[in-house]
Amino acid sequence: MQEFSLEHVAEKIYFSKTKEYFEEVLSSYNNGNYRSSVVMLWSVVVCDILYKLQNLVDLHNDGQAKDILTSVQDIQNRNPKSSEWEMKLVEESWKKTNLIDNIEYTNLVFLQKQRHLSAHPVLTGNAELHSPNKEVVRALLRNSLEDVLIKPPFYTNKILDEILHDISNNSSALQTEKNIKRYLESRYLDRMKSETESQIFKSMWKLVFRLDNEECSKNRLINFSALRVIANRNSNINQLFVSNKEYFSQIADDPSIISLLIDFISTFDFIYENLTDDAKIKIQYVIDTTPNGKIMGWFARESLKQHYQKISDWISGDETPILKSEQILKLRNLSDSAEWDSLFCNLISTYYGSSWNYDRADSRFPVLSSFLEIFDRDSFAFLLQKIEENNQTLDRRRARIDHASLKEKICEKYPDFDFSIYPKFNDSI
Q1: Residue 409, number of CB atoms within 10 A of its CB
Q2: pTM of the predicted model as reported, rounded to 2 decimal places
Q3: What is the rounded CA–CA span in Å between residue 10 and residue 147?
Q4: 361 CB-near residues (< 8 Å, 6+ apart)
Q5: pLDDT confidence of 3, banded at 50, 70, 90?
Q6: For the chain, which residues make up each domain, given as ranges?
Q7: What fold does the segment set 6-149 form as a domain?
């Protein structure tokens, strides 16, 4: 496990002015000036809380923040030389805002006591000034960073509005989930407690999978990607579903929205088991009746093998579906297990082997050939048998070229492969 780095975490400090002040604190600590470090740290924390409250007033016209700042100003006006207002600021921020929770408040009280001991001439029994040791100061620095300094100024409901508005306005620059991840982590998530992430996830779930209005429809895909980002990084998500089964089971009736939900559950399959039966019935219907549901609904099957069989029957059946490239990629990425690698190879072979005319076989062979690198001996044998059984793959004009390249690929991997049991395939070359 990588050691906690004060310098690294300090780079995440929200306000640039706070970051500048904290560098002075860190310099004192690194030089062994522990008393000075603690005294300065308290001042930095107090200033940072002031900045956050003022930010809430400036950006959100927050009434609670405004009241706290007014109260602190009154104390300063009455007694300009008193430091009474500092602890008043911390207490009011703890009681009236979500900037500081109970544990964080306790840590700040301890910091203030250490600051007083370090700043005032309180002598020990040996007539020496109090000096906190290195370990205590390091703990104070870490707690101050994590509890206050790196956190942005927000309440949960307001940061949600800000995130939604932000990613909607910048959707053109956030075309990939990778970019969305980098953007959200840099601007919000890396400074956010997991509990707050969970609450934001819960609220966004409603927007993506329950509500169906113009604004939700417009931003559904980018909000969907944001949900995936949070779910992938937040270890509390599983428990969130366990504790809020009824909430997450309230989903839209629209099959297109449920289809998107199926995509989501296919990655986080623990969700399905934590839904109520009425939600599962809706999901199961879309799995049984839509192409995307048939492809991605593996979590509702008894096993990957059963899911494979369902898709295989569908591909080779009377419905004769034409799969889009993104659907085939979804199939490929359904699981990273060795079992699925083999089953996927058989599926793509079945897809080619089920071509009902020459043109369809011509268009499907390049799709097949793009995945030949993952085929093993058994997969190649399965493919050749499918080709052997369908004249639409054998008699088409391009078969001579395509099947020759296929044979060459097989020989590269398996020089001793026996082609004699596939006479029609050999004749097609």
Answers
A1: 15
A2: 0.71
A3: 12
A4: 352, 355, 390, 392, 393, 396, 399
A5: low
A6: 6-149, 301-429
A7: Four Helix Bundle (Hemerythrin (Met), subunit A) (1.20.120)
